[in-house]
Amino acid sequence: MKNFVATFLLCFTICTLAYAQTQPYLNLETATKIADAAQEKAISENWNVVISILDQGGNLILLRRMDGTQIGSIEIAQLKAKTAFEFKRSTKIFEDMIKEGSVHLITMPITAVEGGLPIFKDDVIIGSIGISGVTSAQDGIIAETALRVAGFM
Amino acid sequence: MKNFVATFLLCFTICTLAYAQTQPYLNLETATKIADAAQEKAISENWNVVISILDQGGNLILLRRMDGTQIGSIEIAQLKAKTAFEFKRSTKIFEDMIKEGSVHLITMPITAVEGGLPIFKDDVIIGSIGISGVTSAQDGIIAETALRVAGFM
Amino acid sequence: MKNFVATFLLCFTICTLAYAQTQPYLNLETATKIADAAQEKAISENWNVVISILDQGGNLILLRRMDGTQIGSIEIAQLKAKTAFEFKRSTKIFEDMIKEGSVHLITMPITAVEGGLPIFKDDVIIGSIGISGVTSAQDGIIAETALRVAGFM
Amino acid sequence: MKNFVATFLLCFTICTLAYAQTQPYLNLETATKIADAAQEKAISENWNVVISILDQGGNLILLRRMDGTQIGSIEIAQLKAKTAFEFKRSTKIFEDMIKEGSVHLITMPITAVEGGLPIFKDDVIIGSIGISGVTSAQDGIIAETALRVAGFM
């Protein structure tokens, strides 16, 4: 009888979850943790960057521009995040493909420069991060560090 | 008894965690049902319209243009859906406010014409529908009928 | 007899003129058939894509985004269809030309990635299809299969 | 002795001029304090908003979207801040002017809805804040509270 009740409860839980047709998302608290980790890494390296984070719908949830960062990075950080979100992959992948000869990809509306990474949870995309301000390799280091520290890599 | 309590706690935890970090969304199957209901209503009235549906992130999931519909409605239907999604309300609310004197709202990037409705599930916005092609009052009737038939109103 | 010949000639002239002033076009019913064929192929391969179809004027007539498809494909599918329509050729032709050295073509407003095909009827262009979501080679397979199944290739 | 006095006067003048060629600006630390004050007020009222802050050049320095805020507020909050910055006045002033009959102001590239305020230091504009998410009157209360708490009003 006990086993039956336990099994019933477990099934009920799974059914409820399935029926609910829900999926994970990114809230401001988690986005803030990711941005804090990015900013801490940038400060430790004495780098100035814009940190941009999009949510599960590709909409901006947080942006910070560190003092002294070039103004153009406000847009670039968001564009890198947009590309990483829209194509569920690091912007570095597109950068490498174009460098290695797939020049035709330039005709797509993408920003193919390292520094943008998708954020996954349970294999579902819940957002992305875009960093711009220093070299694109350094931007990429900040993005990766941020996701690792926040537990997303 | 211990097993039972343990299982109950496990289920409770799974539910709580899942609930806290997930939210409902709109899939193509449901969007298709909504669009079918809209199209059926339009055919029954002999009206030609564009049907546009956005998902929980405000991104286009389905668009249909019925034969003979004015080309401008391709964009208008999407703009109505965008406004309904972005502001979680019927575009008719903005239309009425401006008509009744709140003329300053025209300075906002909205499309304040009836025919756009948000789609809610469990009080969470999971998308929106935008209809354009006939009079805006008729567009609104199609949008409402579609959501009612599909069980969202 | 003279009257009969005169009447016949008049009718023939009217018919010819009328025929000369019409051209084939794509309606929603045919676009739906093409999209259904594309979706069926995608499902059979377990691929997720956006299906986009333009009509004889190059205007969007139908769009479907299958669950889980990357958001960026909403725009890319439409851009591939636009390029295929505007230049009456497969987007793969431009991709190959650029890969083979005609890099200057990047300065044109085209999307030179496989997955876009024009739709012809009686040697007249009546629309185009754009597929995006998996690899561009796989996108191309879906586009071709859809047109073949629907009787346009 | 005359030479010494002359040299001293020259140095003093140069220093003063140099000093006169700087102006106050807004850094991320101060912008964060203002945003924290805005967010605290919003939480205390159970309101969900987007907080947007521009610097002395009118460029975005910080943006936060609280959970559940309508997506359209991402753009509106930035537009309100832009208008407050570009015209050195509260967006409510434009809203009131249009409501009172100056409808022609709609033809200007402004967002005439309460919730945007310029930030001054020593009578020099160093940035602006834009709030969007609840009613425009409530948005305005958050903006004012934020600047008062942070010592700018």
UniProtKB/TrEMBL annotation, chains A, B, C, D:
InterPro entries: GlcG_carb_metab_protein (IPR052517), PduO/GlcC-like (IPR005624), PduO/GlcC-like_sf (IPR038084)
Signal peptide: 1-20
Keyword check for Signal: yes
Keyword Disulfide bond attributed: no
Keywords: Signal
SUPFAM superfamilies per record: GlcG-like
Coiled-coil residue windows: none
UniProt-recorded name of the protein: Heme-binding protein
